[in-house]
Amino acid sequence: MSLLEKDKAFVWHPFTQYQTSGDPIVITKGEKHYLYDEEGNKYIDANSSWWTNVHGHSNPYIAEKVYKQFLTLDHSIFAGATHPTAIEISERLIKLLGRDFQKVFFSDNGSTSTEVALKMAIQFWFNKGEQKRTRILALEGAYHGDTFGAMSVGQRGYFNKPFEHLFFDVDFIPFPTEENKEEVIAQVEKLFGTEEFAGFIFEPLVQGSAGMTMYAPEILDALLAIAKKYQVVTIADEVMTGFGRTGKLFAIDHLELSPDIICLSKGITGGSLPIGITVTSQQMFDTFLSDDTTKALLHGHSYTGNALCCAAVSASLDLFERESTWEVIRIIEKGNKDFVEKVQQHPKVRTARYLGTIMAFEVEQSGKSNYFSSIKEEAIAYFKSKGILLRPLGNVIFLNPPYTITQEDLDHVYKEMLAFLEKL
Ligand SMILES: Cc1ncc(COP(=O)(O)O)c(C=O)c1O
Prior knowledge:
Layout: H1 3-10, E1 27-31, E2 34-37, E3 42-45, H2 48-51, H3 60-72, H4 84-97, E4 101-107, H5 110-127, E5 135-139, H6 148-152, E6 171-173, H7 181-193, E7 197-202, E8 206-207, E9 213-214, H8 217-229, E10 233-237, E11 261-264, E12 276-281, H9 282-286, H10 307-320, H11 323-343, E13 349-355, E14 358-363, H12 375-385, E15 388-389, E16 396-399, H13 407-423
Parallel strand pairs: 3-15, 5-6, 5-7, 7-10, 10-11
Antiparallel strand pairs: 1-2, 2-3, 4-12, 8-9, 11-12, 13-14, 14-16
Helix pairs in contact: 3-10, 4-10, 7-8, 11-13
Pyridoxal-5'-phosphate (PLP) binds near residues 109, 203, 208 and 265.
């Protein structure tokens, strides 16, 4: 049996309708911003393997640090025990985040990092004895993961229809734009004014799964100001936007005000190993102190604080201290700016936008932009034939490459994006 035949026999892939989908590519090697298939074909990983990879694949620096960690300590229980690498990265993250951030909670992936954040916000009010503070606010179009709590605060629709009746109630406000911002701000003032809200969760500045939709820091600052006025716990889900994606280390670095909780994953290990991290303040932490055990955050996973994942975080943070990483981020940012100026004039493009290393454009189609657009499959096949792996969000084609990409490869991707539009 070939690898592909065995895959078909034994593997169930995510987000895949087997009745209609084509074969997966068998990836046998990754190096820098390239992935190689079993025939040796080389592809530019234009969306960084589900937006995770920032320092290039099989990064030797990360590999070395993880290997050394493995020889010393692979994994140990994290309740009633700790280890040097978890302590090291916690201290470094607290210094990098600044503001009031003081405590790092470990979990396994992006979804669990948001689940933990929601549980912190809800239990914060429970522990204070404020029974009325139970409501959660989220943005329309949000995506915070695929576990039940994360799905509850995400956009309801095709993806989670079978489970919708089991979700907890959440209030959604329209995605804020320059046009509707006054209405959205007024709506939030009214909602938070009820003093029934426990928390407000949002993807800061860029909603990833919604189609890399972007909103201004001034709008988010205005929403955060209202939340602070009414003491609503604010949760910045930086699972996608963190680690240089918006041109700064964190998207919240574009803001004047600070959220109470931040969720991190994806790029935090350079995209090499899974980890979820939820960071909050001393004030939040202190609310869980009590003689009563049930007031503690009774949440954890077998692999919480895994030492290999922590070593990958440590290596990734080292690489962010290198000027060369930021030089590539600037190169991608400049490339995106120039490309957006050009592509937004194209008659087949509805809108185009960029922030830092993220660039997206919506291809014209009948009706509203949506995930099930047929343009998606056409684009995947076209770009694959040009040595580029990308996975559009419906008719939204986007670029968020690893920070090892060269100017030449960036230019190749932009050129092929224009050629694809011509071909449509
Ligand atoms: C903003 C955001 N939050 C949470 C998640 C969920 O992360 P994971 O897929 O690691 O569970 C994602 C994944 O795309 C995301 O983009």
